[in-house]
Amino acid sequence: MQTRPMRSPTIEAWQWQVAASCRGMPSAFFFHPWGERGPERIERVRQAKDVCAGCPVIDECRRHALQAREMYGVWGGLSEDERLILLGLHRRHRTPGPDSTEPDGSGAGSVQPVDHVDELTKR
Ligand code: SF4
């Protein structure tokens, strides 16, 4: 059996992180602790977004988060829910499809891979 060497991430792919405004900040600033809800969560997300708003690599960060489908945290000035909505994956924003497999008709079975991340990240 022939094997191929594993691909390693290139430095260029992550170079943008060097200039990140959040570099060195505690991750708890951007990622919610277990069970965080309500006003505390809203305020933490707002503060994280304030940091992102002045970040010189916000576009690169947002593109990465959408392409990688980062599930948690604030990335590129977008919350978890905002990224799901942009990707068409948020439960409340799905349209039922003919192949929906969820009893509530939320269309889980019709979710398609997203191939338009560049379009989503244009500002
Ligand atoms: S956009 Fe926000 S999360 Fe992304 S690198 Fe900048 S400060 Fe960090």
TrEMBL record:
Location in or out of the cell: Cytoplasm
Predominant location category: cytoplasm
Reported cofactor(s): [4Fe-4S] cluster
Annotated region (Disordered), positions in chain: 91-123
Record's GO cellular component terms: cytoplasm
Annotated positions binding [4Fe-4S] cluster: 22, 52, 55, 61
Keywords: 4Fe-4S, Cytoplasm, Disulfide bond, DNA-binding, Iron, Iron-sulfur, Metal-binding, Transcription, Transcription regulation
All copies of domain 4Fe-4S Wbl-type, residue ranges: 21-85
Gene Ontology MF, one: 4 iron, 4 sulfur cluster binding
Post-translational modification (record): Upon Fe-S cluster removal intramolecular disulfide bonds are formed.
Domain of life per record: Bacteria
GO biological process, one term: negative regulation of DNA-templated transcription
Entry's cofactor comment: Binds 1 [4Fe-4S] cluster per subunit. Following nitrosylation of the [4Fe-4S] cluster binds 1 [4Fe-8(NO)] cluster per subunit.
Its biological purpose: Acts as a transcriptional regulator. Probably redox-responsive. The apo- but not holo-form probably binds DNA.
Family: Belongs to the WhiB family.
Name used for this protein in its record: Transcriptional regulator WhiB
Name of the gene this protein is made from: whiB
